Amino acid sequence: MNASFVLLPGDGIGPEVTEAAYRVLVAVGRRFGHEFHFDSRPMGGVAIDEYGDPLPQSTLDACREADAIILGAVGGPQWDDPNAKTRPEAGLLTLRKELGLFANLRPITAHAQLIEASPLRRDLIEGVDILFFRELTGGIYFGDSSLSDDGRVATSVMRYSVGEIERIVRMAAQAARNRRNKLTSVDKANVLEVSRLWRRVASRVMTEEFPDVDYEVVLVDAMAMHLISRPRDFDVVVTGNLFGDILTDEGSMLPGSLGMLPSASLGETQPGLYEPIHGSAPDIAGEDLANPLATILAAAMALRHSLGLETEAAAVEAAVDVVLDSGMRTKDIAGGGKFFGTEAMGDAVATAVST
Ligand code: NAD
Question: Could you tell me the distance, in angstroms and rounded to a whole number, from the CA of residue 186 to the centre of ligand 1?
Answer without folding.
Answer: 28
